[in-house]
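Write out structure tokens for DNA (cytosine-5-)-methyltransferase.
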Amino acid sequence: MTVLDLFAGPGGWSEGLRVLGLTDIGIEIDPAACATRAAAGHTTIRTDVADYPTAPLRGKVTGLIASPPCQTFSAAGLRAGNVDRDLCHQGLDDLARGKDTRTVLRDACADPRSLLVVEPLRYALDLRPDWIALEEVPAVAPLFAHVAGILRGLGYSAWTGVLNAADYGVPQTRRRAFLLASRTRTATPPEPTHTQDPGPDTLFGPALAPWVTMADALGWGATDRPVPTVTAGGGKSGGPEPFPTSARKALMDAQRRGSWVLHTNRNQMPDGTRQTTDPHSAPAPTFTAKAGGQWVLRHSNRRNATVRRADEPAATLLFAKASNDVSWHKDGPAGPESVRITVQEAAALQTFPTGYPFQGTKTRQFEQIGNAVPPLLATAVLRPLVPAVLGVAA
């Protein structure tokens, strides 16, 4: 029996399954992501999910995973998915009635990628897996609710909702819509393991763990081990620079002192809500570098960027093609300094294992990280679904 992973990317879901002792077969068209999956030991079919026939897979798939491309629905994109949403709903209804109108609807979409959100239902209807797990940006939640209704009509138990990755040990307040469905058990969201304000233990059990911070995830401020000598990054080929730049050295010195702030382009507060004030006008955080000024992680140069201290989780990390300048930045007395975040740092904040073999140019590696499901979140979501099907201990 096989777990099929649509739009598999570099292996976020696959790594989550690996923790549970399981493997999947991914379908992915991007060559860099396919190379990453191969280097990480994940089986992949390199093809377009929308073109791949389902007939050869009937009777062979026990679990279905899918994270359709989110660019057209993401708040960081052009939001063409909002214009195409009605066409996507129509595509879901047509598939449920046994009609495949994808070609016609795709041509009518403002962005043909929007219609990829209906592909998981096509596979589910044709393959009837025992369990299903879908993930997308929160804007897709109404479409997931539509899919859930169709699946319930086929005998599935289904749950849809938005989860915050920080509630499951991910050092990032990444909010994503999920659909979980099962033919063999009641589909429910995973129980949180972490919370922003744990509070004391009670008679009903111990308090949840606090949210994992960036400092925790990156090992900043640790006195019992040296700070890794990471380079500032290389050229388009992805090779490292022979020695850290002076700014990177200053940044590494600040690591040892624990003086950090994270600055991204998502204007979010730590609980995932929107920030209404200009962060640049807010009082200075308590973490300041002794050399003067504040180190922040800035995603693009937008003034409404979010500021996060190192003792908080990161905001949602995004690495769009048009804006890959996610950098540590400090305005000091000697002028501004900027150091681009490394692939290793970004991967750690997304909970990929240390040394995960991302392939392709630096730009493509960052894109893969930003688009992936955090493996730790994937494990939490899948754990309640797979035991009844595959006998894996919860």
